[in-house]
Every structure is written in C-alpha cells, then in structure tokens.
Automatic annotation (TrEMBL):
<feature type="active site">
    <location>
        <position position="324"/>
    </location>
</feature>
<dbReference type="Pfam" id="PF00285">
    <property type="entry name" value="Citrate_synt"/>
</dbReference>
<dbReference type="GO" id="GO:0005975">
    <property type="term" value="P:carbohydrate metabolic process"/>
</dbReference>
<comment type="pathway">
    <text>Carbohydrate metabolism; tricarboxylic acid cycle; isocitrate from oxaloacetate: step 1/2.</text>
</comment>
<dbReference type="InterPro" id="IPR002020">
    <property type="entry name" value="Citrate_synthase"/>
</dbReference>
<dbReference type="GO" id="GO:0036440">
    <property type="term" value="F:citrate synthase activity"/>
</dbReference>
<dbReference type="InterPro" id="IPR016142">
    <property type="entry name" value="Citrate_synth-like_lrg_a-sub"/>
</dbReference>
<dbReference type="GO" id="GO:0006099">
    <property type="term" value="P:tricarboxylic acid cycle"/>
</dbReference>
<feature type="active site">
    <location>
        <position position="385"/>
    </location>
</feature>
<dbReference type="InterPro" id="IPR016143">
    <property type="entry name" value="Citrate_synth-like_sm_a-sub"/>
</dbReference>
<protein>
    <recommendedName>
        <fullName>Citrate synthase</fullName>
    </recommendedName>
</protein>
<comment type="similarity">
    <text>Belongs to the citrate synthase family.</text>
</comment>
<dbReference type="InterPro" id="IPR036969">
    <property type="entry name" value="Citrate_synthase_sf"/>
</dbReference>
<dbReference type="InterPro" id="IPR024176">
    <property type="entry name" value="Citrate_synthase_bac-typ"/>
</dbReference>
<keyword id="KW-0808">Transferase</keyword>
<dbReference type="GO" id="GO:0005829">
    <property type="term" value="C:cytosol"/>
</dbReference>
Length: 450
C-alpha cells in the first residue's frame, strides 16, 4: 500500500470511529463543553483573581441575563480604565501587580515593580538568534517556542515554590513584548524585504511604550496610551476561559512554568478564542469588499444569513467577534473598546468604516437571534475581539501581532492563575472523566484480520 494512501485510508476511518451521537450526551448526563443545560459553565474551581459576570441565578432556579461586568481582584475593570484615563497614566504594570499580588501597589511598590520589569525585558542573545532563525513563521508559535526555550536559561526551572513562581511570572510578563516585537520585525524582514531592527528596550518606559519602540521606533502618545488600555482590558478573564483553564490544568500536574504557559499560548491562538481578533479583521475586510452599500441593513442581513448557513466567507457558519460563553447582554470590554474605537476613528478620519462596523455589530446580533429563533434561547452580544483588531489597525499595528498582543496581556492572568493553582491547601490534579461508549470486542490475531 502506498504511504500517501494510508493517510487517506486512516482519515476515512475517522468518519465512523470519531462519530459520537449527540443524544448520548443527554443519555449519560455529560456536560458538553463543560456546560450545564442552561449554558452556564460547570463549576470546576474557586478563584480570588478575576470575576466574569454575565447572569444572575434566580432564587426559584434559572438564570437572568444581566449586562456584563468584569472584576480584577474585586475591582471593577471599568473603574480601573476610567481611573487611568482620568489620571493620564499607563496602567498595565499596575494591573499586573494587582492581579499577581491581590492588591494595588503604592507609589514605592509600583516604582520598584516597574524597575524589575524593565530590567527583565532584554532576551538572552541565543533566544534572539533563534527567533531570527524561525523567520516568517506564525508569531504565536514563535512565542510558544521562545517560552519553552526560557526553561533552558532558567537556573531553577522546575522549582514551584512561591518565590520562584513569582520570579518566573515577572520575567515572562517582561519578555513577551520583546519576543513579539523581535519576531514581527524578523517576519517583516524576511517576507517584505524590510530593514531589520533589533532595538534594545529603553529604561523608564512603560511596557506599551517600550513595545512600540522595539517594534517601530517612533510612536505617538495616543498610540501608546491606547495600547496600554487594550493590555489592561485583556489581562485576565477568570479561571474558566480556555487558555487560563489550560494553564491551570497543566499546572495542576506540577509541571514547570514554561510548559504550562506554552500550552496556554496554543489555546489562545485558536479562532474561537484569542485568535478571533484576527478573524474579525479578516471578516471585516471581506464584508467591506462584498457588501456594496455599507448602510443597507437588508444587504448586510442577507449576507450574514448566508454566513450562518455556511454558504459564504470561511463557511464555518460563524460570525466572529460575536457570542460569549458567559456574557449574553454585553461584554464590558467590548463597550469600552467601542468607545475607544469611535474616538480614534474620528481622529484618524475613519468614521465611515467605524459606522459600518457598528452596524455590522448590531445586525450580526439581530440576524443571529432571528436565525436561531427561540430554539436555543441563546442570546449573543459582541465580545472583546469585535473592536480590538480595528483599534490595533488604527494605531498602525500589523495583523500578524493581534493575537500575540492578546497573549502579551493575558500572560498576567495565566501566571496569576498558575500561582493560585499551586498554592491552595486542597489542591488536586485536575482529572475529569470521559464515559466510553464503545462496546468491548475480542482481539483478532494479525493473520486472521480481513
Ligand atoms: C477572547 C475570547 O475568547 S471571546 C470569544 C471569541 N470568539 C469568537 O468571537 C468566535 C465566534 N463565537 C463563537 O464561536 C462562540 O460564541 C463562542 C465559542 C465564543 C462561545 O460559544 P458558546 O457560548 O459556548 O456558544 P455555544 O457553543 O453554546 O453555541 C450556541 C449556539 O450558537 C452558535 N453560535 C455561538 N456563537 C456564534 C457565532 N458567533 N456565530 C454563529 N453561531 C454562533 C453555536 O454554533 C451554537 O449553535 P448550535 O447550538 O446550533 O450548535
Ligand atoms: O472567557 C472566555 O471564555 C473568553 C474570553 O472572553 C477571554 O478569555 O477573555
């Protein structure tokens, strides 16, 4: 048998060997996607880090959808963002301090923390050379590989004591911007023939400023402040989001920090999770080309219906940037990002595109609800990824780094959750169960197989 054919043959067998009938989930009371019948997530842990609120439990049973709220260590993210805007301050480092420690820093603590971050931003020479070697590959994959490589430079990589976990967390938060900026510049050099710049991070700059400096040298105050707010908004989302849960699951085995974080990066890359920010921009560009009248509700609705019927665009049946496992009425981050996008669009003369995106948001929600009818009772709103790509684009950032930027922010939540996972008294390896639904059968010797 030809080697190429065996792949085809094996792939064909999957059609039946991987088929699991939907009814079996109900029959065995299995929570598909770790979700209860009402769509809420199955409770699998306790945390004191982030709180994602999308509904209330009614005393008589059932859920009541409410406008979404997000809390970092008990503080409302909207208050944090508005406080930072009012003070005209960079806030991502402060949020990292809050999420890692549980408390906001005072001025002295923040100063020392900023110094520590700055000191840890440069990469090992070998890591830079290895990123150079990986020219042009997906930046999320380069990030994961560079993180795994950090293990080899760490004098104490497997030590899971609190001090060591904190040291590793701060190093990861500090080095992500450098890895991403270098990886992009090398990508740009090898795919677009642009000059290659490897800029050393500067002292006394915030993470957002230093990232923009390493990426493109010149940037405006507005660009740096906008990036900082995006980093603040994506830093944490409870223990149940797929990438954080992945980090918690891997951490529960006692594995090293770099292995757990690399797993989280792999999860975030997916188009249903952090990778959706890239998908939204791709979908937006597609809609700009395929919808003639950007103000026509009728034309937009018709196109979205075709998308939901898997007839056009990527034929997945999905409208990206819409829907969320917890939020139903609104994602508070999407509301804040929409305001940011509106202001930036005004400043950059891109109001027509913003108006189109806003109308798409409205029509996607409405079309989805009409398409599903009352069958599932599922309500959707836009999520954090709906406006983030448009904002990144307006501040001159390239598409290849949209999902890596999400990781550059979420590394804070991942490390905070890893520390929590390894430091509570009743901790256990996370090990749920799968019900096997295949009957047992006798072993057949190779000569008797037909
Ligand atoms: C940072 C983040 O991760 S935010 C999320 C980013 N992801 C996206 O924007 C991708 C598009 N959205 C989605 O795929 C989903 O809404 C998710 C994965 C985010 C959340 O999904 P859930 O809340 O679990 O929705 P659930 O899986 O219960 O789906 C309910 C039904 O609505 C459908 N649905 C949910 N969202 C969408 C969507 N955006 N477009 C089309 N259909 C959708 C599902 O396909 C499912 O249909 P089915 O019952 O016929 O199988
Ligand atoms: O909570 C989720 O499932 C996804 C999400 O919005 C995030 O991780 O920011």
């Amino acid at each position: 048998m030809k080697k190429e054919y065996i792949i085809y043959k094996l792939s064909e067998t999957i059609k039946s060997s991987c088929k699991i009938e939907n009814e079996l989930f109900t029959q065995f009371n299995v929570k598909r996607g770790l979700r209860n019948e009402d769509g809420s997530g199955v409770l699998v842990g306790l945390t004191k880090i982030g709180n994602v609120v999308g509904y209330e439990r009614m005393p008589e049973g059932g859920l009541k959808a409410i406008p979404g709220k997000l809390f970092y260590r008990g503080l409302d993210v909207e208050d944090i963002v508005h406080g930072l805007i009012a003070d005209k301050r960079f806030g991502f480092e402060e949020v990292a301090y809050l999420l890692l420690s549980g408390n906001l820093p005072d001025k002295e603590e923040l100063g020392a923390f900023l110094e520590l971050i700055n000191e840890n931003m440069p990469l090992e020479q070998k890591t830079t050379m290895n990123i150079l070697d990986l020219e042009g590959q997906n930046i999320m994959n380069i990030l994961a590989r560079s993180v795994l490589e950090m293990y080899t430079f760490d004098p104490n990589p497997d030590d899971t004591s609190r001090d060591n976990l904190m040291r590793q967390s701060i190093q990861l938060i500090s080095k992500f911007p450098t890895i991403i900026a270098y990886a992009y510049n090398i990508f740009r050099h090898s795919t677009q023939g642009r000059s290659l710049h490897i800029r050393h991070p500067k002292e006394n700059l915030s993470i957002a400023e230093n990232f923009l400096f390493m990426l493109k040298k010149d940037y405006t105050e507005l660009e740096a402040r906008t990036l900082d707010l995006l980093l603040v908004l994506q830093a944490e989302h409870g223990g149940g989001n797929n990438s954080t849960f992945t980090v918690r699951v891997t951490s529960s085995t006692g594995t090293d920090t770099y292995s757990a974080i690399a797993a989280g990066i792999g999860s975030l890359k997916g188009p249903l999770h952090g990778g959706a920010n890239l998908q939204v921009v791709d979908m937006f560009n597609h809609l700009k080309e395929n919808i003639g009248d950007w103000k026509s509700v009728k034309e937009i609705d018709k196109y979205f219906n075709c998308m939901l019927r898997k007839e056009v665009y990527d034929k997945s049946g999905l409208i990206y940037g819409i829907g969320h496992a917890v939020y139903t009425i609104s994602d508070p981050r999407a509301i804040l990002l929409k305001e940011l996008a509106r202001d930036l669009a005004k400043e950059k003369g891109r109001e027509e595109e913003f108006a189109f995106l806003e109308l798409l948001e409205d029509r996607a929600i409405e079309t989805f609800s009409n398409f599903k009818g009352n069958k599932s009772g599922k309500r959707v709103s836009s999520n954090v990824d709906f406006y983030s790509g448009f904002v990144y684009e307006m501040i001159g950032l390239p598409q290849e780094i949209y999902t890596p930027l999400f990781a550059m922010s979420r590394i804070v939540g991942w490390t905070a959750h890893r520390i929590e996972e390894l430091n509570f008294e009743g901790k256990r390896i996370i090990r749920p169960a799968y019900k096997n639904v295949l009957e047992e059968r006798p072993y057949v010797p190779i000569n008797e197989r037909i």
